[in-house]
Amino acid sequence: MVAKLIILTFVLVGGSLGYNLFPEVISNWQAAPNWLVHPIIGMLLGALIFYLMSFQAIRPLEKAAARVEKAFSELSISYLLFGSLGAIIGLILAVLISIPIGALNMIIIEDVVPLIITVGFAYIGFQLGTSRREEIRRLFTPKTEKTENEDVLDRKEGDSYRKYKVLDTSAIIDGRILDVVKTGFLEGTFVVSHYVLKELQYIADSSDSLKRVRGRRGLDILNALQKEYGISLEMDDSDIPEAEEVDLKLVHLTKRLDGMIVTNDYNLNKVAEFQNVPVLNINQLANAVKPVVIPGEEMRVMVVKNGTERAQGVAYLDDGTMVVVEEGKYHLNERIDVVVTSSLQTNAGRMIFAKLLNDQKTIDDQKEKA
């Protein structure tokens, strides 16, 4: 189909050029017969010449058309629509500005400057239309009717509230976001970028079995969020050319939406904070709701492995908190009673340091005797 279209275009162009130019060129040749000067003869000859030339141009033009088609297929409909509208508005403004410039009757200015203005305004309009399309879309979105209790129930976006929560790949794969959302502690609209969806699909198709399981778990979590009643989940298909990495694209998207990033990624957390983008970290939330332990509190744990120093043993609470037990190396795979000596809060989580309850009782008995 593309080849036939190229041939037809060449024939039409050749016939048009032959009809208009061939008679004038032949008329300069005094020995030319009269029938050769006829425009119809020129049209036929021009069409024939360009028809033969088209066979040499089919392959390069087909490749160029394939590249253009591929480039447009990767762009979203909203990107093209808002970009085209912005370019049209830019062209209209350029025409309005070029009218008084053309009235100056200055050779260079009236010919060159309008062309520069036209190209420049079309480009600026296209860029503004694509980069601000979410804001433009919200301007023309019909607002719901006001209710009597709107001032109480409908909170506006401000410094303390962000409507849009942009989900990161790590938060989706982790899965705890589903439980947190079900409890109602997070409100608003959850946004999943198509870049995150592509990354999840890439992980789910990985040759590594562990990565493949994590990727499929992430896709299952997304489906569960979408089917959950009362949860607003939206897909964002906007292109973000300002960055190449997915994490930076999410930062730019969050800025556009005036939202917050939901993540488990420590590095993304720091990058977003540096760019003044609010972050909701699931790990920080989990650490905040863990039960608080104080020195002197007793607990019963099972030592599951050796520690890194001296005769330490390592145990874990039900919520995953690590407990480092002094002299616990000698009680491997045993349930023992320990007493908390101190705790340490880190970005990775909370660590509890403890020692054997029998040793603490021995120390207390010695103090009483003294």
UniProtKB/TrEMBL annotation:
The keyword Repeat does not apply. SMART domains: PINc. It comes from the Bacteria. The keyword NAD does not apply. It holds the Pfam family PIN. GO terms for molecular function: hydrolase activity; nuclease activity. This is Uncharacterized protein YacL.
